[in-house]
Design goal:
This is Cation-transporting ATPase. Belongs to the cation transport ATPase (P-type) (TC 3.A.3) family. Type V subfamily. It is an enzyme of class 7 (translocase). It is a multi-pass membrane protein. The structure is a single chain. The chain is an alpha+beta fold. The protein has 6 domains: 135 residues, no CATH class; 62 residues; 120 residues, Calcium-transporting ATPase, cytoplasmic transduction domain A; 301 residues, Calcium-transporting ATPase, transmembrane domain (Up-down Bundle); 233 residues, 3-Layer(aba) Sandwich (Rossmann fold); 211 residues, Calcium-transporting ATPase, cytoplasmic domain N. Helices cover 40% and strands 20% of the residues. The strands form 9 sheets. Strands 20-43-42-41-21-33-40-39-34-35 form a 10-stranded mixed sheet, with helices on both faces. A 9-stranded antiparallel sheet has the order 23-22-32-31-30-29-28-27-26, sandwiched between helices. Strands 11-10-12-19-14-17 form a 6-stranded antiparallel sheet, covered by helices on one side. Helix 31 runs antiparallel to helix 35 and helix 32 crosses helix 35.
């Protein structure tokens, strides 16, 4: 989709899969080009390096905006703000496909390559049908032929000729070879790209300064550590590339029809339009293709994570006049990378498919591209990290100017001024910071590996520390993979007393499905269960949907695929090989499945047409259907459905059972007609046979894990494809819906519109066995326009008669308070969610914040939900078993896969233990890693600032620490503490709140600056008092270029006190509970602390000749002054601990943060004008039902109203407090809603005004 296009435009928006690309047209300018090369040369490449880091600057400096007709380059910005510059390539007199797939010649072809896809310029010269400038746009090469009629595929298949040699060459030239190639980038290129990152460039600068300052040992250590880090990074990148290439690389010989002949070619020679022959024994699909005849059984686990074989059917005449689309015709498409297990073909004819897409345009290619170009980790901590480094750089700038001024005043040489001023920059911004920051992550990754949780994206671990909502798939994640048979409820007809009418009712529950028991009440129910499935026999073993397999095995029947006992009967099947189903207790009976309408998630059902050879009439067919109770009910003749059907369905669903309704319809048609009849014409006027009840057990660990997350105030959400009521029951059983809390269902009414022309929404209360109805003195109403829903008097699983629900224009404070306060939960189904997304976009963010169960969700809806939660500032984890969860796993901040399927390679975490106990483990390790990263960063910043203060004091006397003193601090104290800092394990229990994620928060900045002041005062005291001692000898700076003797009494005194300050900082910033274990649990660091403290005491109190010579210290003759230095360090430690624990942790992180949150809530309440709020009167009565606007925009929104109970008088602000406490964080739509004026018209937060 093009938002702003045209050949004469400079900017264009393009929808490409999951990405929205913004394209800008540029060309080179001669003057800018000359200026660019001149500045690059004059700055020795530094100017070019800066432009490499900032692509937007690169484009602005080097290029001139232009139209797309004249573009030489396209600057691309995706929806994650990742930029890329690509050249526009040109080719003259070439062939390209048209919209209907035919090839035609164009005078010029222009394209650019972006993430393995070629984007073609569709201009006036490309297609004659373009109507002016607005039709000009960029399109992926695979999307150009996007209007191919289904009849075109059928015509190619019937012709049975294939492509000609000339057509093949033209298509190969345009589409390229059918290869998904993951190219291994050269090692030297990877090394170079790592070296020119900002941190490593700064390290090169630092070690250059140190080598010039003869500080070679530490410089060499930093060089060695940096080289090791670069090598490890390059090794990890190369390993991932090799792993990905080995996973996706696949070539084999395939059989095609070309020039009217069958040929065997390499799969890399396939082009769209080729007629491909599928071998009967199966194969690995090398392209996306459309099945044209027969049926094919495939395993799509490589793409979907679902290991259940799926039956693909041929494109039929039903779609003859329609345009072929991937979404609508997915059941006809064999996707690249899927394994063909078996083909069912016409006699004398091979199964044919027409190649649709090749290489990276295929579905497998899209998956590979999503892995190669993942979504960048958008974590606030990383952004704050760079901002804090910028803050340190500003301090170093001040130190730089201070050094120049002081050195000039003291008469130092130019070389010494330059070296000392540059040295202060390397001191303030520590070059070892990147290596130190990775310590906590590496330790957390190793601890996770010991618990069989593997992480392929270590940077994601820190993100896990901020997780405040976890979305869970249901089946296979919260519950066991398989379903267990529970009972069947057959439907029977009985005569009334007057013998004129039949009464349709349910029989008692039956626990057996054998033929004998089945035929005693209704033989067709057992026949339907035994025949209506998609099972197939592969190598003698039945394969298919686990549910179908369980039910079929329960019947005890047998299945054969191939020719039956009656040859003449199978000939009537138009030479199709049928499946023969036989009961175990009747050798003569057999039932032939001659037509199968496969299961469709959109249709929620499947059907088969069955022929009984024992019948006298050959035209006597039977249609059996099974599917969701709601869908089968809509297809049945109401006269055949029991009156209490919905009551029974909801009663089972509320107890967590999965229900399948079964129905039949006799058909009077012959074999030929049955094999060609349209689905819609036979799936109607069905006769209800009964219900099959299946049980899906919750995994043993699920309840404990959910309760653990709930106690930690981490919101838990169920996202499932199952029935809404079943999902609600499982959610209540596993703790997502808390005990004794009511659940409300948000639903839509198909076909009914409100006064604004939008689909009507309603709210119903779901009543489980543990729920009570709403009290008699309380009524709830939710109004939308003039419509009202009232619960039925029967037990239909919803609210009783005294509950009235409608959906109005906006959420009212009081009724929303009633519905989504701590006593209520909301649930919604996928179809209703889709309606809200398209028709009520202003409600999407709010519903995502308060709904706990999302049922009947398609894979793209799961992904949309995750993205919407992220849009309101949640940090989202998604946990699934890989089946239909891949898109959501990739979209989440932290995807946790419980499956080893290849599709889950995109998830950062994979657990070998297939249950959700890994979720709190990942979160706790993430919290520990995040706190460690905070602590080690503040420690490294404190170390740098401490050394900065020391050096600033010494620069005042033209002195500096000796090399020995620098090495003792840098190589021993700092390096060892940094290496052992992350050894502290995660705390064994999740805390009630997540750790701070803002490095630039008031608490963090106050901590660092406060410790700097304390340390500065201590050093200043020692520096001044040292000079006042009777035995003090002032430092004599060197004259001109003579060898500098850096030893001084003031330098030694400052070194002695600063040694203890580095140890103090390590202990102060090594936080323990509630996110990490205590310092005592980190035994190596405890040992280091004791050893370092004793060593420093020894250096101060008993300075031997060896110590003085090695460190370059000067003997301070007064033992009492040396003890005074230790006393200053001790007082420094007491004040530092008191300041950190008392002021920062208790006051700022406790009282102040609570006060700030309270004020933000009050601000939102004040944002709602008083004349829009109607509070209950003192006696509990209201004069009228009022509708209060909470968040309103233009047009209608959700309203809820209620008549409160007599003892209710809560302030509307309590709503927000309960929402925040229940959902585990402040979403952006609350914090951003700051009042701008006193106008009674309330404007919705800007970011909520979006379309989908």
């Amino acid at each position: 989709m093009v938002e702003a296009g045209g050949a004469r435009r400079h900017r264009m928006t393009l929808e490409s899969g999951d990405h929205t690309l913004t394209l800008f047209a540029y060309r080179t300018g001669p003057l800018k080009t000359v200026l660019f090369y001149a500045l690059t040369f004059l700055t020795l490449g530094i100017f070019r390096l800066i432009l490499h880091w900032k692509q937007k600057w690169n484009v602005k400096v080097r290029m001139v905006p232009c139209t797309f007709e004249a573009a030489e380059y396209v600057f691309i910005v995706d929806n994650h703000n990742v930029t890329e510059l690509q050249p526009v390539l040109r080719k003259t007199e070439t062939m390209i496909p048209t919209e209907n797939g035919e090839m035609r010649k164009v005078p010029e072809l222009r394209w650019f390559l972006y993430r393995k896809l070629e984007y073609i310029w569709i201009g006036d010269e490309t297609f004659d049908g373009n109507d002016g400038d607005e039709d000009c746009c960029w399109k992926p090469s695979s999307d150009i032929a996007d209007k191919i009629p289904s009849r075109s595929f059928l015509a190619v298949s019937e012709a049975n000729v294939g492509l000609t040699s000339s057509e093949i060459l033209r298509r190969l030239e345009f589409y390229g070879r059918n290869e998904i190639v993951v190219q291994l980038r050269p090692i030297l290129y990877l090394l170079f790209m790592e070296v020119i990152t900002p941190f490593y460039v700064f390290q090169i600068f630092s070690v250059t300064v140190w080598y010039n300052d003869e500080y070679a040992y530490y410089a060499s250590l930093i060089v060695a550590l940096s080289l090791g880090s670069i090598v490890m990074d390059v090794y990890q990148i190369r390993t991932q590339e090799i792993r990905l290439r080995s996973m996706v690389h696949s070539t084999e010989s395939v059989e095609v029809i070309r020039d009217g002949n069958e040929q065997i070619i390499g799969s890399d020679q396939l082009v769209p339009g080729d007629v491909l022959l599928i071998p009967p024994h199966g194969c690995l699909m090398q392209c996306d293709s459309v099945l044209m005849n027969g049926t094919v059984i495939v395993n799509e686990s490589v793409l979907t994570g679902e290991s259940v074989p799926i039956t693909k059917v041929a494109l039929t005449d039903e779609t003859h006049d329609s345009i072929f689309t991937m979404e609508k015709n997915s059941k006809n498409v064999l996707f690249c990378g899927t394994q063909v297990l078996q083909t069912r073909f016409y006699r004398g004819k091979k199964v044919k498919a027409i190649v649709l897409r090749t290489a990276y345009s295929t579905l497998k290619g899209q998956l590979v591209r999503s892995i190669m170009y993942p979504k960048p980790v958008d974590f606030r901590f990383t952004k704050d990290l760079f901002k804090f480094i910028l803050f340190l750089a500003c301090i170093s700038g001040c130190g730089f100017l201070y050094t120049i001024v002081v050195m000039i005043m003291r008469g130092n040489t130019l070389r010494r001024i330059i070296v000392r001023s540059l040295d202060i920059i390397t001191i303030t911004v520590p070059p070892a910071l990147p290596a130190a920051m990775s310590v906590g992550i590496i330790n957390a990754q190793l601890r996770l590996k010991k618990k069989e949780i593997f992480c392929i994206s270590p940077s994601t671990i820190n993100t896990c520390g901020a997780i405040n909502v976890v979305c869970f798939d249901k089946t296979g994640t919260l519950t066991e993979d398989g379903l267990d048979f529970h009972v069947v409820r057959p439907v029977k007809a009985s005569k009334k007393e007057n013998n004129t009418e039949n009464t349709i009712s349910f029989m008692e529950e039956m626990t057996e499905l054998t033929s004998r028991n089945g035929l005693s009440f209704d033989g067709d129910l057992v026949k339907a269960i035994a025949t209506c499935h998609s099972l197939t026999r592969i190598n003698g073993v039945l394969h298919g949907d686990p549910l179908d397999l369980i039910l079929f095995q329960k019947t005890g029947w047998t299945m054969e695929e191939g020719v039956g006992d009656i040859e003449e009967e199978t000939q009537r099947f138009d030479n199709v090989q049928p499946s023969i189903i036989k009961p175990s207790d009747d050798e003569k009976a057999e039932y032939s499945v001659i037509r199968q309408f496969t299961f469709s998630s959109s249709l929620q059902r499947m059907s088969v047409i069955v022929f009984d050879p024992s019948e006298d009439r050959p035209d006597n067919m039977m249609l059996f259907s099974k599917g969701s109770p709601e869908m089968i009910l809509s297809l049945c003749d109401p006269k055949t459905v029991p009156e209490d059907y919905l009551t029974q369905v909801n009663a089972y669903a509320q107890h967590g059972f999965r229900l399948i309704a079964v129905a039949r319809r006799p058909l009077d048609m012959n074999f030929n007609k049955a094999s060609k009849v349209k689905r819609d014409s036979v799936e109607c006027d069905l006769e209800m046979l009964g219900l099959v009840v299946m049980e899906n057990r919750v995994k043993p660990v699920t309840l404990g894990v959910i309760n653990q997350l709930n106690r930690a105030n981490i919101r838990t959400v169920m996202v499932t494809g199952d029935n809404l009521l079943t999902g609600l029951s499982v959610a209540r059983e596993c703790g997502i819906i808390r005990p004794q809390k009511r659940a409300f269902l948000v639903e839509h009414v198909p076909g009914e519109l409100d006064q604004y022309g939008r689909t009507k929404l309603i709210i119903k209360q779901s009543v489980s066995s543990s729920d009570e109805v709403i009290e008699d003195d309380e009524s709830v109403s939710v109004s939308m326009g003039s419509s009202t829903w009232k619960g039925s008097s029967e037990n239909d699983g919803f609210s009783p008669t005294n509950t009235e629900v409608e959906m109005p224009n906006a959420v009212t404070t009081e009724n929303l308070d009633h519905l989504i306060a701590s006593s209520y939960h909301l649930a919604i189904s996928g179809p209703t969610f889709a309606v809200i997304v398209h028709e009520y976009p202003e409600l999407v963010d709010q519903l995502c914040c308060v709904c706990d169960v999302f049922a009947r969700m398609a894979p793209d809806q799961k992904q949309l939900l995750v993205e919407q939660l992220q849009a309101v500032d949640y940090t989202v984890a998604m946990c699934g078993d890989g089946a239909n969860d891949c898109a959501a796993l990739k979209a989440a901040h932290a995807g946790i896969s419980l499956s080893d399927a290849e599709a889950s390679i995109a998830a950062p975490f994979t657990s070998k233990v297939p249950d959700i106990r890994c979720v709190p483990t990942v979160i706790s390790e993430g919290r520990a890693a995040l706190v460690t990263s905070f602590g080690i960063f503040k420690y490294m910043a404190g170390y740098s600032l401490t050394q900065f203060v020391t050096v600033m004091h010494l620069y005042w006397i033209s002195n500096i620490l000796t090399d020995g003193q620098f090495m003792f601090i840098d190589m021993f104290l700092i390096t060892m503490f940094a290496l052992l800092f992350g050894n502290t394990p995660a705390f064994h229990r999740l805390a009630h709140t997540s750790p701070p994620t803002r490095l630039l928060s008031i608490a963090s900045m106050t901590s660092v600056i406060g410790q700097l002041i304390i340390i500065g005062i201590a050093q200043f005291t020692v520096f001044i008092l040292t000079a006042q001692q009777s035995w003090f000898t002032p430092y004599q700076p060197p004259v001109d270029d003579e060898v500098e003797d850096k030893r001084s009494m003031q330098g030694t005194a400052l070194f002695c006190v600063s040694m203890f300050q580095y140890i103090i900082l390590a202990i102060v910033y090594s936080k323990g509970k509630p996110y990490r274990g205590s310092l005592l649990s980190n035994k190596p660091m405890c040992a280091l602390t004791v050893f370092a403290t004793l060593l420093c005491l020894f250096i101060v109190i008993w300075p031997t000749e060896l110590v003085l010579l090695t460190l370059g210290n000067v003997d301070l003759p007064d033992i009492y002054f040396r003890l005074f230095i230790i006393g200053v360090a001790f007082i420094n430690a007491l004040v530092s601990f008191a300041f950190e624990k008392g002021f920062v942790d208790y006051f700022l992180l406790g009282y102040w943060e609570r006060y700030k949150k309270k004020r933000s809530i009050e601000t939102i309440v004040d944002y709602v004008p008083s004349d829009h709020i109607r509070r209950p009167s003192m006696n509990g009565l209201t004069s009228s039902r009022t509708e209060t606007t909470l968040l309103s925009g233009e047009g209608p929104q959700l309203h809820m109203t209620k008549t409160p109970k007599a003892d209710e008088g809560q302030q509307s602000s309590s709503l927000f407090e309960r929402i925040i406490s229940r959902i585990g964080g402040e979403p952006a739509w609350i914090t951003s809603s700051i009042p701008q004026s006193s106008s009674p018209d309330i404007t919705e937060p800007e970011h909520l005004d979006r379309t989908f």
